[in-house]
Design goal:
This protein is an alpha+beta fold. It is built from three helices and six strands.
Length: about 160
């Protein structure tokens, strides 16, 4: 991939450089972002019929599986649920706005970066509770985001430390 930004890294899931299974690691450097300073891991699985079929992308806590991850949510975000499922138009099955064979991994990671740069869609959320808080009480939403990034729990849910 050409011109990958410095704040985006690729890491293979195994030491065999399996090009079909990898992590993208995004470090949020935009100081205006609520998720500033966080490091986030997205697991990618590329299907055999790529680019006809879309990649499977999932927000994860880390590129390594540890006992500390058990029950942890990777991020508090309106467009990412507590299991790590991602709501991003180009990853949807919608024939109008969804995946098309002309899209690339680069299109996906730029879409993921945009979700972290405060361009989340709070009116079409995957995490409805986070979206409602963002709409109803943005100041409290900001506090919750920063607190969960430090690995604190919110409403009984543990979060992975991303700072």
């Amino acid at each position: 991939m050409e011109d990958v930004p410095d704040f985006v890294k690729f890491k293979w899931k195994d030491k065999k450089n399996d090009l079909m299974n990898f992590h993208i690691i995004i470090k949020v450097l935009n100081k205006k972002s609520l998720w500033y300073g966080g490091t986030y891991y997205i697991s990618f699985n590329i299907p055999k019929l790529y680019p006809i079929d879309k990649p499977s992308c999932h927000w994860v806590c880390s590129d390594k599986i540890t006992k500390q991850m058990a029950g942890c949510a990777p991020i508090y975000h309106p467009n990412i649920n507590l299991k790590g499922d991602i709501c991003l138009n180009i990853l949807s099955k919608d024939p109008k706005d969804g995946w098309k064979p002309i899209y690339t991994i680069e299109n996906i990671y730029y879409g993921l970066i945009s979700l972290l740069n405060d361009t989340c869609n709070k009116y079409d959320p995957l995490n409805k509770e986070a979206a409602a808080l963002m709409i109803d009480n943005e100041k409290e939403f900001r506090k919750v985001v920063r607190s969960t990034m430090k690995g604190n729990s919110y409403k009984g849910q543990k979060f992975w430390k991303s700072l």
